[in-house]
Amino acid sequence: MRSAVKLSLASAFLFAVPALAQDTSLALTSSSRPLPWLCRQPAGAAGTVEEIALEPGASPVGITVGPDGHVWFTQPGTNRIGRATRQGVVSSFDLPTPFASPQGITAGLDGNVWFTELGAGRIGRITPAGVVTEFPLPQAGSAPSGITAGLDGNVWFTEQVGNRIGRITPAGVITEFAVPTPESQPRAISLGVDGNVWFTEQAGNKVGRITAAGVITEFPLPTPSSFPSAIAPGVDGAMWFTEQLGNKVGRITVDGVVTEYALPNPSSAPVAVSSGADGHIWFVEQGGNRVGRITASGVITEFDVPTVRSRPAGITFGPAGFFCLDGNVWFTERTGNKLGKLRLVTTP
Question: Which of 128, 151, 174, 329 would you label with 109, given CA atoms 20 to 30 Å apart?
């Protein structure tokens, strides 16, 4: 119960970041007063990237902050779930099903971490102690991909091949909802600030929204064949998403109004997105080998990942303290076989 309360507090605090945060420059000097909602941490300059090496062949993809305050991530290369402390101490846990290919991962309100098994067609649950339970989907070959916690206490996920949005209760009861567009390939999914769940349709070229009752609304994207991949809420109340082939970051309001922002470098291939503790939106560029930041007004800044051709794949805001947020974004490097941390603001 305590861990679930901590998760709720951390989530509420993220979306309650003052509007001032959206005007905060990344290049705060060491003489600047640290942002009051950031956890105390060693001094350092904004934009600095630290990398944490993982076990050989891990190939990390999805990443999230767990209810226990640690960073959790999927390792399809070694068929494990990984965990890292804020200090960079890494552990990993084997999955019972061989070649499960874990992909998306999220913190559940039940105090556990939930993930998808793309290759095995299952939804997995892992306790903070590392105990894994797997739940098979009703139809084989559904290829579950993205996953998120809902305000209804359940966990929601996408079925990339099954063309459905799924819902699983903490007890493992699964309900599925068909996506109206045929063969839309729903990929990423995220809880929105409006209380609904939002998802991307990479082949359908749409962003979708599903209510707790299972009612789906779809919104076409302006750029043809943009291949929307990831989606996450912003502190501005909108949902932000990446267009992997469109080479853009998009924003959609709760009313379905879409704005797109082209990235400066061609073939950047943005694939994951997250809010940061500074109030901005952060994303990773799989092709460009960079981590990017975009403000609410669409100003983009990019930072190189030190490891060349690392193929960054997932990103999340840093693990929170009880009443503070970590001043980093954490990301996975699939080919680099590392976790990365990028400092958001300079602290003295």
Answer: 329
Residues 258 and 224 sit within 8 Å (Cβ to Cβ): no
Quick one: which of 61, 64, 91 has its CA closest to 76? 61
Q: What is each CA distance from 26 to 152, 183, 238, 261, 293, in whole angstroms?
A: 36, 41, 22, 20, 10
228 contact partners, CB below 8 Å, separation of at least 6: 187, 188, 200, 201, 202, 205, 206, 207, 221, 241, 242, 243, 244, 246, 250
Contact 317, 327 (CB under 8 A): no
- Within 10 angstroms of residue 283's Cβ, the number of other Cβ atoms is 29
141 neighbors 161 (Cβ within 8 angstroms)? yes
pLDDT tens readout for residues 49-97: 999 999 999 999 999 999 999 999 999 999 999 999 988 999 999 999 9
> pLDDT at residue 10 above 70?
no
- What spatial distance separates the first Cα and last Cα of the chain, rounded to whole Å? 36
- In this structure, the strands spanning 216-220 and 206-210 are antiparallel
- d(CA 49, CA 43) in angstroms, rounded, equals 13
**What is the pTM (predicted TM-score) of this model?**
0.90
